[in-house]
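Example 9 (inverse folding). The structure is encoded as follows.
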């Protein structure tokens, strides 16, 4: 089936659903009711479906109309994006670009990449920090353009997503300076279950990953724990409250740690990367940001790995 629906036809369907009648929808669009009816009738013939059931109470959308409504909402978003990019272009700015960032990479690698963006042009850049479980729906709806965070989990991503691995992200144990373990002692999670921990809360891939680490080590989930997804609170409590926690090299990228960092024998690395929608073509600022963050990582002493603490 070849469908050549026009934006005004999709707008007509949306208006009828919003107002509940052809007459009110026509008024909202500034056209006559016969003209609106003609737009809808033509779209119905193109699609081969009935979009509305008319009655004395108004116009009731069919299931097919709801499908068209979703397409109409996407068209509206695209038109808004065009307007925003044209406005940026007219002002000489690059963008707009909306980046979703998970908490650990917001502390280290992403701020470094933003600071390293080439100068010479104004930027229209928005950064949204949240858990990956909440960022993914925003990416699906087109509210953000890409996500920087964990990629390549145990299951492959849905086909609609494209993932680009940036780095192997090593885990370290953050401990207070007076932690009673020698620097060269090999530690495992099973040795530490009675220690006071600070751990990520539910709702993110890193929480599920760390729980899997404890299970794989045959170690119970610590009973003395504070759970939070605030990296700032995590680091503060390691430094000042005598707690221990897992940190990553992406989190500590180019940041001198204010506490001791120790290796763990039974915790594998994860991968950090960029996730995008395959169907979406992004503006040039997205490419510049990706090139910048890749350049920072590959320019580090360990190619392809963030220059985390030397332990």
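The amino acid assigned to each position is listed next.
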């Amino acid at each position: 089936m070849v469908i050549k629906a026009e934006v005004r036809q999709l707008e007509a369907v949306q208006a009828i659903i919003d107002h509940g009648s052809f007459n009110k929808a026509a008024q909202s669009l500034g056209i006559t009711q016969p003209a609106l009816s003609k737009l809808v009738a033509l779209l119905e013939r193109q699609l081969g479906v009935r979009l509305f059931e008319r009655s004395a109470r108004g116009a009731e959308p069919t299931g097919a109309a709801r499908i068209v409504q979703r397409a109409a909402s996407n068209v509206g978003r695209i038109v808004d994006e065009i307007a925003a990019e044209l406005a940026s272009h007219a002002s000489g700015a690059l963008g707009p670009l909306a980046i979703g960032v998970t908490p650990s990479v917001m502390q280290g690698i992403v701020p470094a990449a933003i600071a390293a963006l080439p100068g010479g042009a104004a930027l229209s850049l928005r950064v949204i920090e949240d858990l990956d479980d909440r960022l993914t729906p925003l990416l699906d709806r087109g509210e953000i353009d890409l996500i920087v965070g964990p990629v390549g989990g145990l299951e492959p991503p849905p086909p609609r997503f494209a993932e680009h691995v940036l780095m192997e992200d090593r885990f370290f144990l953050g401990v207070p300076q007076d932690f009673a373990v020698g620097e060269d002692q090999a530690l495992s999670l099973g040795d530490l279950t009675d220690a006071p921990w600070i751990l990520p809360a539910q709702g993110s891939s890193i929480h599920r990953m760390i729980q899997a680490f404890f299970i794989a080590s045959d170690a119970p989930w610590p009973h003395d724990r504070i759970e939070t997804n605030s990296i700032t609170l995590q680091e503060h409590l390691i430094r000042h409250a005598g707690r221990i926690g897992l940190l990553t090299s992406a989190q500590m990228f180019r940041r001198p740690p204010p506490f001791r960092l120790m290796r763990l024998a039974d915790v594998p690395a994860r991968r950090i990367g960029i996730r995008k929608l395959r169907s979406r073509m992004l503006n040039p600022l997205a490419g510049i940001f990706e090139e910048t963050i890749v350049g920072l990582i590959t320019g580090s002493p360990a190619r392809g790995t963030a220059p985390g603490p030397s332990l």
